[in-house]
Amino acid sequence: MPGYGIAAADEGSGLLPWSWAAQRLTSAQNYWVSTIRPDGAPHAMPVWGMWDDSELWFTSGVQSRKARNLMTDPRCVVTTEDAVNPVIMEGTARVVTDPASLRRVIDLMNEKYSTDIEFSFLDPGVNATFSVRPQRVFGMVHGDFTGSPTRWTFAG
């Protein structure tokens, strides 16, 4: 974050541990998904999502703008709803249709949101199920803006 007076990694409070980001990705109630329209314009929408150790799952109607954007260009940014202590994840979304993964998503969704959504909700002809694995993740703590900004980089 050039120009913001951010301390070096070995100064200030130091870099945040990955567990800090993972906890926020797990506990977030809502997430913002930013995609790219065919004309290059940005598009952002909130979704329910489930962090599952190394990937974020969410669903969207196959005719929704975000689903159509991701099917054309899978690059996206997903953020937690907390702008005070945010986690910002850059990655590539993939559509998931295998029954084992869809069952996992339904189980995670029903557990997290105290719902009783049926497996049929994830019919790939109606609702697309996406998995986003992080390539870069950013996090920072509001109370330590200059000392906490951290970037994690992941392969692939």
Secondary-structure blueprint of this entry?
Blueprint: H1 18-27, E1 31-36, E2 42-47, E3 50-51, E4 56-61, H2 65-72, E5 75-80, E6 87-96, H3 99-113, E7 127-139, E8 150-153
Antiparallel strand pairs: 1-2, 1-5, 3-4, 4-7, 5-6, 6-7, 7-8
Structural description of this entry:
Strand 3 and strand 4 form a beta hairpin. The protein has a single domain, classed as Electron Transport, Fmn-binding Protein, Chain A (Pnp Oxidase, Chain A, Roll). The mean pLDDT is 91. With 156 residues, it is of the alpha+beta class. Strands 1, 2, 3, 4, 5, 6, 7 and 8 form an 8-stranded antiparallel sheet that branches. Helices cover 21% and strands 34% of the residues.
Name the features.
single chain, 156 residues, alpha+beta, Pnp Oxidase, Chain A, 8-stranded antiparallel beta sheet, 8 strands, 34% strand
Helix/sheet category = alpha+beta
Mind telling me which CATH architecture this is?
Roll
SSE arrangement, N to C? HEEEEHEEHEE
The fourth-level CATH homologous superfamily is Electron Transport, Fmn-binding Protein, Chain A
Q: Give the end-to-end Cα distance, rounded to a whole number of Å.
A: 24 Å
Radius of gyration: 17 Å
The total domain count is 1
Shape: globular
Biggest sheet overview: 8 strands, antiparallel
CATH topology: Pnp Oxidase, Chain A
Model regions low in confidence, pLDDT < 50 over at least 5 residues: none
Number of helices, counting only DSSP H or I runs of 4 residues or more: 3
The whole-number mean of residue pLDDT values reads: 91
Helix content: 10-25%
- CATH class membership: Mainly Beta
Per DSSP E runs of 2 or more residues, the count of β-strands stands at 8
Beta content comes to: 25-35%
